[in-house]
Design goal:
- This protein has about 170 residues and is an alpha+beta fold.
- It has one domain: Nucleoside Triphosphate Pyrophosphohydrolase (Alpha-Beta Complex).
- Helix content is about 15%, strand content about 40%.
- It is built from two helices and nine strands; from the N terminus they run E-E-E-E-H-E-E-E-H-E-E.
- It has a six-stranded mixed sheet with strand order 4-1-6-5-8-9, with helices on both faces. Strands 3-2-7 form a three-stranded antiparallel sheet, with no helix packed on it.
- Strand 2 and strand 3 form a beta hairpin.
- The chain is globular, with a radius of gyration of 15 Å.
- The N and C termini lie far apart (about 45 Å).
């Protein structure tokens, strides 16, 4: 049997200035790279993506997030990430604003960034090339996208569903 999908959640949290909270990862995958906080769904326990997002909010950020505080902005499926793994990522925006930067966590440290500052950060290639543009385009709406990563590293992206978000962000 080949690899199966690892299911994960990402939390897109903003402060009052509409800056995005990112974590500089202290562990693999993506060691040293900036990405939204989140983690793997405990599929062996029957955990849902919403439950995982709430748990990760408590564990990594020290905040209480309820399922009704989440807006599912996107689902991204990546096949053959790093040449072997399959990932299915649920991208959730927390619908209320954070007032302070969370304390460092064993998995990384946190910092808020403005949208233009993201261009200067070290981040996973698929994040920079496709996931961030899709998130900004669909913020407040929804998208589903699939990325097939070829043996030579080329990415083939398919936008499977697109419902544009609101323009007031």
């Amino acid at each position: 049997m080949g690899p199966v999908h690892t299911i994960s959640t990402l939390l897109y949290c903003f402060n009052e200035q509409d800056e995005i909270l990112l974590m500089e990862r202290a562990q693999k995958p993506n060691l040293g790279l900036w990405s939204p906080p989140g983690g793997k769904v405990h599929t062996n326990e029957g955990e849902s993506p919403h439950q995982c997002a709430c748990r990760e909010g408590a564990e990594e950020l020290g905040i209480l997030v309820r399922p009704q505080d989440l807006h599912l902005t996107g689902i991204v499926s990546e096949s053959h990430y790093s040449g072997r793994d399959h990932w299915m990522m649920f991208l959730f925006e927390v619908t209320w604003k954070l007032r302070e930067t969370p304390q460092p966590h064993r998995e990384g440290r946190f910092q808020f960034f403005s949208k233009p500052q993201l261009n200067d950060l070290e981040m996973p290639a698929t994040d920079r090339q496709k996931i961030w543009p899709l998130f900004w385009q669909h913020r407040g709406g929804f998208f589903a996208a699939r990325c097939q990563i070829q043996p030579a590293g080329a990415q083939i992206w398919t936008l499977e569903e697109s419902r544009n978000g609101t323009a007031d962000h």
